[in-house]
Amino acid sequence: MIYVWALEQKNSRRGWDEGHAQDVFVPWVLSRQYSKSNGSTAKEGSKDHRQASKDALEVKTLANDTPQETNAEASKEIVYQRYYHLYRKGELEADVVSAGGYVLESGYEKDNWWAICGQLQRAMTT
User: Hey, what's the torsion of the CAs at 54, 59, 63, 68, to 10 degrees?
Assistant: First the structure.
């Protein structure tokens, strides 16, 4: 089973839909207490933490691989940009087939496309 993010998310908080870029960077917020620098951080649920999380929800289509500080500096959060390819309807199934597989079942659930797939067996020649 494979789950991928769908491009068609116009009713979600992200608001992606047809016409948006399919290759995006999505922020991932890391609390400093879990980073290697192990500095102090805002408590989970605090005003600073909520603001940093809110600030980090903005999706960027261009970013570098280096971590960025959020604009809520007091929160002591580190933001990494994760690459995602957003799949259009039918694209996941096409990728499975082009990779030599077959699709048993597929669908859409909670802003994701999913597919249950298998690998085609090659005929043995003697």
Answer: 10
